[in-house]
Design brief:
The protein has 379 residues and is an alpha+beta fold. 32% of the residues lie in helices and 24% in strands. The chain contains twelve helices and 16 strands. The strands form three sheets. The chain has an eight-stranded mixed beta sheet with strand order 4-7-8-9-10-11-12-13. It has a six-stranded antiparallel beta sheet with strand order 3-16-15-6-5-14, with helices on one face. Helix 1 (18-30) packs across helix 12 and helix 4 packs across helix 6. The protein is globular and about 55 Å long. The two termini are 31 Å apart.
Length: 379
């Protein structure tokens, strides 16, 4: 047995112009075997099942496409070095006890994920370790993360179409490259009833960062820089603050959330333990929600016909080292509202050089009317 430094994860070797633009974009939509694009594996999470059984299919699909050594292991190893190895045994105990106390259903789901990874792959992954991943974003904003951590992030584009609907294109940027091998397209159901769709690699936390619920909202999370203290985060956890990665799933499975306005209200007003951007669209509008722990700045799509958000407050200029927002904005302005006004145009813009990066894990396109229209993982 080859034991990793982080003893919650072990490796057991014995076990085993608009014309060409539209043409190119529509070809990509219709043919997912285009160069560099791979469709993500698909899985169903049925919340009518016992919690420990809900994610079994997702784990098995992920490991069937990419074995542990090409997916979980390098991803875990990279983030152990930058973050999780800096947690103490007492931290892991605290995080797991807090999750069991405040989120018992998700805790059971997480136990099932840990057990299934271990059973199918032959590599031990502990429940306590996955509990720490639930708080990945919050902990990564603290002093235990290295300077410059998460320096690259994500891109969102919202476009108003001639019919008045909104197209939402999203790039998820992340390191290490093995994160792409964990990406799945997931449909959440309650028996035969579809609840919402998601595409993500964070799913092994039981939460998601890119999702759409038809007739309600599309949404993605983008990293927002900010400095917190580890003890500050632990105190908020002890006060039952919702993990960021749980926010979208919680809202989309709440029967009281029936409209885009309802959804935006929840995302805007839920107390968080770290800053973030949430970019959302509804049937006829969209918003950038710039979140601090307690407050929210909302910028709406109207009267503009597009919005672009990366990882910096949009009322400030891009930093010289990262001009993705400026590049995307210039592309859209070049084509104009009469040409760049569709889901394919949003996809073409978000995947152009200078917007898409070497760290782009996946791209998704969604609308409230049609749901998750397209998703691809980049080779």
């Amino acid at each position: 047995t080859n034991q990793k430094k982080n003893n919650h994860v072990t490796t057991n070797k014995a076990m085993g112009s608009s014309g060409w633009l539209c043409a190119a974009v529509y070809a990509a939509f219709l043919c997912s075997v285009s160069v560099g694009m791979i469709p993500p594996g698909r899985a169903i999470v049925d919340v009518s099942l016992p919690p420990k059984e809900r994610w079994s299919q997702a784990v098995r699909v992920a490991l069937l496409k990419h074995p542990f050594e090409q997916s979980f292991e390098p991803t875990f190893s990279a983030h152990n070095k930058t973050l999780f190895d800096k947690l103490t045994k007492e931290d892991y105990t605290f995080l797991s006890k807090s999750l069991r106390q405040f989120y018992p259903e998700q805790s059971q789901e997480l136990e099932g994920i840990a057990d299934t990874i271990t059973q199918v792959s032959g590599h031990f992954v502990s429940f306590e370790y996955l509990c720490a991943w639930v708080w990945f974003h919050e902990l990564a904003h603290t002093e235990i993360a290295p300077d410059g951590f998460q320096a690259s992030g994500c891109t969102a584009i919202l476009l108003k179409t001639p019919s008045g609907t909104v197209a939402h294109a999203r790039n998820m940027d992340q390191t290490p490259p093995s994160a792409k091998n964990l990406t799945l397209r997931i449909t959440f159901t309650n028996g035969a009833d579809e609840l919402f769709e998601a595409v993500d690699w964070y799913w092994f936390t039981t939460g998601v960062m890119t999702a759409v619920k038809k007739s309600v909202a599309t949404v993605q999370e983008n990293w927002r820089f900010g400095n917190l203290l580890k003890q500050q985060v632990l105190d908020m956890i002890q006060n039952a603050t919702l993990p960021q990665v749980f926010l979208f799933r919680k809202a989309f499975t709440d029967p009281q959330i029936k409209s885009y306005k309802d959804f935006v209200d929840v995302v805007s007003n839920t107390v968080l333990a770290s800053p973030m951007y949430a970019i959302a669209s509804g049937p006829e509008t969209g918003s950038i929600l710039t979140r601090s722990l307690l407050e929210c700045n909302q910028t709406t799509l109207s009267p503009s016909w597009f919005l672009v958000q990366t990882n910096y407050d949009h009322w400030l200029p891009d930093p010289p080292s990262d001009d993705r927002r400026t590049v995307a904005t210039n592309i859209l302005k070049e084509f104009g509202a009469l040409e760049a006004n569709s889901a394919p145009a949003a996809f073409a813009t978000v995947t152009r050089d200078g917007v898409k990066t070497d760290e782009t894990v996946y791209t998704a396109v969604m609308t409230v009317q049609e749901g998750l229209q397209f998703a691809c993982v980049w080779e």
